[in-house]
Design brief:
The protein contains twelve helices and no strands. It has 309 residues and is mainly alpha-helical.
């Protein structure tokens, strides 16, 4: 008995393959830039999005990846998510307060016991006097003295504290506009640091009762010169202002400029006090160490308190 074979039916796969190969041969490849490709893929994934390609959060050019589009949740920290190492995290490392505290204790020990380290004060004072005497008396010396006096005045509480409060109000206003949780943190931080300065400096002045560079004996109702109150006020007030304003901006260049300005102001006030013979060198260094401890603590607490909101 002769068996009849079934009629062959063309496979759909082969027909589809033939059609696809014909389309690939006749289709012209389209050339698209990486920006258009990434933006088109993003638009296809989310049809509701429309408009121009988003800008990068670190440059002014179009973003190429979704990671480049999103903003960091910690504006005060450099880098991407997760934060990459930067200058501010290195300054907030755990070893920084240990070094500052050790230096502050060593200087305080020498001041209390009239140790040999105090010779540095005389050497720095003599070097400043020689430099001042070498300047032209009619032109450069008056200008240098005027600048030093101006820098010294910037460390006064009547200048530094109002500046700190104004910066805290500006940071609070920016937080309210951005609907940031715990928008009141800048004002609270400014008020706390303003009260903390006299609480730290005045008892130390009364305890050490160190005479100033003029050599006059302290009266019973006078405080000492150690540590420098103007230096501590300037460093803490301007440093806190920089930290608060840096939280209100996402531009790394602006944050760097704010920190550099605070550093220059704190250093300039200390240098002006020594140039005008208002304070010893170690008085100023001790206040820098004390201010560094306060700013380090504030720099660690502010992001954590903001995250809890």
């Amino acid at each position: 008995m002769k068996m009849l074979c079934r009629p062959r039916v063309p496979r759909p796969e082969r027909r589809i393959g033939v059609v696809m190969s014909w389309q690939m041969e006749n289709e012209q490849p389209s050339v698209m830039s990486p920006t258009e490709t990434s933006w088109r893929s993003t638009s296809e994934d989310n049809p509701a999005d429309s408009g121009p390609p988003p800008q990068s959060r670190s440059t002014d050019r179009p973003a190429h990846t979704p990671r480049d589009v999103r903003n960091g949740d910690h504006p005060s920290r450099p880098g991407t998510l997760p934060p990459v190492p930067g200058r501010l995290p290195r300054l907030l490392a755990p070893w920084v307060p240990l070094v500052l505290l050790a230096l502050l204790l060593a200087i305080s020990w020498q001041v209390a016991g009239h140790g040999p380290l105090l010779r540095i004060d005389d050497q720095v004072r003599d070097a400043i006097a020689r430099t001042d005497g070498a300047l032209p008396a009619q032109t450069v010396r008056p200008a240098a003295d005027h600048i030093a006096q101006l820098l010294s005045d910037l460390g006064g509480s009547l200048v530094a504290i109002p500046f700190l409060l104004a910066c805290s109000l500006l940071s609070t206003w920016r937080s309210l506009r951005g609907r940031v949780p715990r928008w009141w943190l800048p004002v609270a931080a400014a008020a706390l640091t303003s009260l903390l300065i006299p609480l730290l400096v005045v008892p130390a002045k009364a305890y050490f009762a160190r005479p100033g560079p003029d050599g006059l004996v302290l009266l019973p109702d006078q405080w000492g010169w150690y540590p420098s109150g103007h230096t501590a006020t300037a460093a803490i007030a301007y440093g806190t202002s920089a930290l608060l304003l840096a939280r209100a901006t996402v531009r790394s260049g602006v944050r760097t400029a704010l920190r550099a300005g605070a550093l220059l102001l704190g250093t300039g006030v200390g240098a002006g006090l020594m140039w005008c013979d208002y304070h010893w060198f170690l008085d100023v260094v001790a206040s820098w160490c004390l201010s560094g401890l306060v700013l380090w603590t504030l720099g660690r607490l502010l992001p954590r308190l903001a995250d809890r909101g």
